[in-house]
Design a protein that fits this description.
globular, alpha+beta, about 110 residues, Arc Repressor Mutant, subunit A
Amino acid sequence: MSDTTQMLKGILDGCLLAIIKEGEIYGYELAARLETYGFQSFSEGTIYPLLLRMQKEGLVSATLRKSTAGPKRKYYTLTDKGEQELELFIARWDQLSSSVDHVLKKRGK
């Protein structure tokens, strides 16, 4: 596991919740969207176990739908509990990123 992947391990859940909040989406689309945001090291194989766990925790719900290009796709939406978890993540992220920025900007002074 790369150093970047290890750092992102705890952050990925929040990023997935934020993307899902934008609208119903399926796994491959999530991976593609992450890539457009600059996350290069995550594949569907990384994302699906997280989505399954989030579904079991009641953070997302899933619906199977027909696909024009093969088997049915599982589309994910945020639940009320998922929205609450996303708000908590954002608050924790704001505090953490502020603290890290403060430490890093003090470096060399």
